[in-house]
Specification:
Blueprint: H1 2-10, H2 15-33, H3 47-59, H4 67-74, H5 78-89, H6 93-110, H7 115-121, H8 127-138, H9 142-153
């Protein structure tokens, strides 16, 4: 976890990802090495807070959102938001944003936009950042995805 957090922060990742990874790392360190780590407070019904956070992320997916700003929108502490969001959605907020960005990027690519335009408009730092996440989640590079979608569009109507 140390190495992943360090790499992500050093690579110039967005604020939400960097802050999430750092907070998760600190929580892990406290849990493992504190003399009296205590127990995390039980999660209750934070559905409304998570819905507010999801709505904010959906409306601002292409911006560099901080965990602190997102927590203020949800009226929770950053750590509580991370735990509640992961419990409710199944992934942390930064991964949720990456999925939103990739969904929008696929839409832009289908409209004929270039890879660099899609990366820029969806909030990725640069095209390599876009490529890395696209390939990790989609299983193929955006260039190959674009070629495959173009070849499917070029088929005659009877073959689709």
């Amino acid at each position: 976890m140390f190495v992943d957090t360090h790499r992500a922060c050093e690579a110039g990742t967005d604020a939400l990802t960097a802050q999430t990874l750092l907070l998760q790392l600190l929580a892990l360190l406290i849990q493992r090495h504190a003399e009296y780590p205590g127990a995390w407070p039980a999660l209750g019904n934070e559905n409304v807070a998570v819905k507010r956070a999801k709505k904010y992320l959906t409306e601002n997916f292409n911006k560099n959102i901080s965990l602190e700003a997102l927590a203020k929108v949800a009226y929770l502490s950053p750590f509580h938001l991370l735990r509640a969001f992961r419990k409710t959605v199944g992934l942390p907020p930064h991964e949720y944003v990456i999925n939103l960005r990739l969904q929008r990027a696929r839409h832009l690519l289908a409209q004929g936009r270039s890879l660099s335009d899609a990366a820029h408009e969806t909030g990725f730092w640069d095209q390599s950042h876009f490529n890395r996440h696209f390939k990790r989640i989609m299983g193929i590079s955006p260039g190959r995805y674009l070629k495959k979608s173009n070849s499917v569009q070029n088929l005659s109507p009877g073959l689709q």
